[in-house]
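dumping this here before i forget
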Amino acid sequence: MTTTRNKRPYAAASLVTVLLCLLAATAHAAGFKRLDIPADANGPALNAMVWTPCAQPAEDVPFGPFILHGRRDCPTVGDKLPLVVISHGHTGSFLGHHDLAETLADAGFVVAAINHPGDSFADQSRSGEMSEFIERPTDIKRLIDYMLGAAPDAAKIDPQRIGFFGFSRGGYTGLILAGGVPDFQHADVPCPDPRPPVCDEVARGEVPRPPLPTDARIRAFVIADPFNVFPAANDLKNVTAPIQLWASQYGGDGVLPQSAPALASALPRKPDYHVVDNAAHFAFLAPCAEAMKEKMSEICVDERGFDRVAFHKQLDASVLAFFKANLR
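structure:
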């Protein structure tokens, strides 16, 4: 059984009570649909996936290499629903955390995820460039604007209850939106071989200049194995929203094992901090279907006997409990 080390003490009885309450509150399946967000003066068109509460029973639906659990294009149930937006990691996908999105939608949340232009599995044209780090926060702001404005379910969303989940570079994105100021030139970030353009851009001093986009509409953040370019506590002094912070023991894909512990110490408001024993970076991605494991073993197959399925049951329940507590 996968274990996590939570840096805040919780009584076992309390945890059981919370989980039972969550199970009792789960009344819907997850409806899901594809949306296209038009280009505007702030950026190109965005490809999005949205999950919503649905009164119909769930079923397994093949979607590319993924197997989604829910109902395609199901009418949305409920009003004044909380919204959670998701930012994927380097060359990731709006489906990379579909199990979490399904869990949240089952429990009455609207969840929206995008493919970041230039840094997704479908478009890697700028994945190694500094421009991606600059534009990612604006992508998420535009996603929230759309969900509260022109989206089909906009009238059903409570604009006072918005949360964020970000993994890897998505974690970096969330910390910027929360008020973090990156310092690429002094950050402990390795440059791989072959050397991406961003390494030379940093060496030349071509780095983001404040202010970068923040978004006070986001009331709570879940940050998973983040790409950490905030080497000093002063870089995070304005990050005061509630944060649940997750770290893998071994890291990977540019995220060092010491990245999240350093963040946990630097944040001015103590986060709800979890270290996942025996896990590497990609353990935070949704468990893969068997066919996907064969084609994408690097991101789908865990080493050292790590049980990703068991871990995600813990992760999804903990994230749901965090958002329920902080998006009241």
